[in-house]
Description:
Blueprint: H1 3-6, E1 14-15, E2 19-27, E3 31-38, E4 43-50, H2 58-72, E5 82-88, E6 91-97, E7 101-103, H3 104-111, H4 116-135, E8 138-139, E9 148-151, E10 156-158, E11 165-166, H5 186-190, H6 196-212, H7 222-231, H8 246-255, H9 267-281, E12 288-290, H10 298-304, E13 314-315, H11 326-337, H12 341-353, H13 355-363, E14 369-371, H14 380-389, E15 393-399, E16 409-413, E17 419-421, E18 425-431, E19 436-439, H15 447-456, E20 460-467, E21 476-482, E22 490-491, E23 496-499, E24 503-509, H16 521-530, E25 534-540, E26 550-553, E27 567-573, E28 578-580, H17 590-599, E29 603-605, E30 625-629, E31 635-637, E32 641-646
Parallel strand pairs: 15-18, 20-24, 25-27, 29-32
Antiparallel strand pairs: 1-2, 2-3, 3-4, 4-6, 5-6, 7-9, 8-11, 9-10, 12-13, 14-17, 16-18, 19-23, 21-22, 21-24, 26-27, 28-31, 30-32
Helix pairs in contact: 4-6, 4-9, 6-8, 8-9, 11-12, 12-13
Amino acid sequence: MSTSQQADPLIGRLVDGRYRVRARIARGGMATVYVATDLRLERRVALKVMHGHLSDDTVFQSRFIQEARSAARLSDPHVVNVFDQGQDGDMAYLVMEYLPGITLRELLREHKRLTVDQTLTIMDAILSGLAAAHRAGIVHRDVKPENVLLAEDGRIKIGDFGLARATTANTASGAQLMGTIAYLAPELVTRGTADARSDIYSLGIMLYEMLVGEQPYKGEQPMQIAYQHATDSVPRPSAKNSGVPEQLDELVLWATEREPAERPLDAGAMLARLREIEKELGLAPQVARAVSVGTVTASASESRELTKVLPQTAVAPAAPVDDVDNATRLRQRTRRRTTRGIWLFALVLLLAAGASGVGWWFGSGPGSLVAVPDVSRMSYADAETLLTQQQLASTPQEVNDREIPAGTTVGSDPEVNTRLDKGTVVTVFVSIGPASHDLPELAGKSTEEVNGILESVYVGVSGTTQEFTDAGAGTVLGASVTPRAGGDAIDCTKGCTVHEGDAAALVVSLGPIPEVAGLTQAQAEKAMSDVQLKTQTSEQYSNSVPSGTVIGINDREGGGNWRPGDTVTMNVSIGPKPVLIPENVVGMTIREAVTTLKGLGFDVNAGIDDGTLPLGFKYWDIYKVRSTNPKAGTTAPQGSTVTLTPTL
């Protein structure tokens, strides 16, 4: 027994007070299968136990129970019998017929392709069992070599009706594109619907694989294979194997027509044609039609659980019986056609020797190790299917990834090509997209500090806008972030939540705009040019600023801060404004003239004091203006002094 089996807590447990678990024999994506002893009926059974992490999933529970109900409705020697279904605490289980042997997948893995008579033998049995299901109104939905069992006593049975569904309820949702991609019917890919003819398509692909040794469609990604199913026609097997008779060529093409209406109606119709071909080729399938199952005592079964070989089956009259069972005959005929060496011969003898040899080789020997396939860059459902084909279980684990889209697998643990015991659970990493991070307030921090913050969360800087402000040069004034998936930018000036791979745009201060007031026009223009600002001038009169000197600059048109490349309007002084000295000032009293000239912006020298005699006499109100300097009727700069000459 392998270390993994020794660690399995179910080994040795009594389930539901009836089934004593002896050893683990298989593990799939939904359940683990054990060999157990039914203490009540004293017989070996296969106990299929749903994985614990799926026990709360109502979808998986319904599929699990559906398998019991679907198989229980069938009574055919080529369908694996289901005896019981129950619940022990939080553990759901099925009790099924125990068939020591190998699967068709394992046989194909050993020998690649089969002979015509071997293929007919296996197809006859599969079609017989599936025909019973179709007559009962059940569509299997997951026909593939892994679900065809080749028992050591010669029986060939189809099992695993976990995806089965009544033919009247044939719609599959996008999350339920069930079955293995390699055998998926085109209508499941294009329309998501399935009926009995979908099973026929899967059988046609499987028939091609048995005759040729490989599947008709290949691709790096599962969806590439699915696309070929939906658009291409399956080639004739004889194109790869010239030994395939034309009748089987035609049967493959008929079963794999892209349109369901052009295929056989159901497995019964395809079986009828297969048996016509058998007669035409003069070959009789060596199919075991029934079995007589012996019983053992509980004590005997405990000591021989993995080594006992079931009694020989009775064979249909149409097929002569000899002392060699069906499974051995298949291996012997294949061995005669291939020279695979002494090692393979020894392996075949071990497989034919009985359940003890099979149990050792595939349970704990070299054959128990399988390589982890590459499950990256696909959906989890496809990764689960790929691992199941390798007889490995899977469990998803969400991880952040900046490059791989959400919902797509990133890789696995253990890594690809690691060799594991069959049934080992492989962790499949599924991307949930880039990780999110909360950013602090960015305004007021230096550009270097902000760049460091963004770099630490894998957010790039898509652009920087520079503005002249009173803040120090290099200070971040604002920030906005555009999501990597597209959409409107969000303001991140005061902090925000970003995802890795987003892009940030920054607004950064260049410091204050140059102070040019008091500079000459040439000096001011150079100062602005040095910081990449353009200039234009506006002349203004000024009583205080000398002509040719910059008074100041106008506000930015539209508001906001100045940016490199903007055009700044500078106001340049052209000196005081010239003002006309009125002619009528001459003849006014001194007081009237002073008032008038000051009102025009002149300083005035009255030429006489505004004294007051002891009697209150005011000179400015008695004396009048005789003349002015500059002369009345001429102009003088505003703010200049006008001298009055009074009459005395």
